[in-house]
């Protein structure tokens, strides 16, 4: 780890080994985890729906409230996963494309902070 004065950040040094650690240890691992979590959440929704359909004591009003909860949960799951993937892409790719300090700041530090605000 090294402090880079021009970017005002502590980051891995610019070596081939550190690039591999950052790419595979951070980006690929986190991308896979986000996809796995989204798949598990979607499978959970499908399982709850299947159990609810086979339930004997369903009432129409109860079905609508559960269905609305399922919709909100699905929207939340997909939006959280999408926002996190955007953050990962911005964090790992924008600084390799441009050297503009404002763009790098907005795509890394600002997006990192915004992901935690939007997630809540």
From TrEMBL:
It comes from the Eukaryota. Keywords: Membrane, Transmembrane, Transmembrane helix. The keyword Membrane applies. It holds the Pfam family 7TM_GPCR_Srx. The gene is Cnig_chr_V.g17788. This is 7TM GPCR serpentine receptor class x (Srx) domain-containing protein. The lineage of its organism: Eukaryota, Metazoa, Ecdysozoa, Nematoda, Chromadorea. Residues 3-120 form the 7TM GPCR serpentine receptor class x (Srx) domain. The chain crosses the membrane at residues 27-46.
């Amino acid at each position: 780890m090294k402090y880079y004065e021009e970017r005002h950040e502590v980051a891995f040094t610019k070596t081939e080994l550190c690039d591999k650690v950052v790419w595979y240890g951070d980006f690929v691992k986190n991308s896979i985890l986000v996809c796995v979590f989204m798949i598990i959440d979607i499978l959970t929704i499908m399982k709850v729906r299947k159990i609810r359909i086979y339930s004997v004591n369903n009432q129409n009003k109860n079905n609508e409230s559960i269905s609305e909860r399922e919709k909100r949960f699905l929207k939340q799951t997909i939006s959280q996963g999408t926002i996190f993937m955007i953050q990962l892409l911005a964090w790992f790719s924008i600084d390799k494309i441009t050297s503009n300090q404002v763009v790098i700041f907005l795509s890394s530090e600002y997006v990192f902070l915004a992901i935690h605000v939007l997630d809540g």
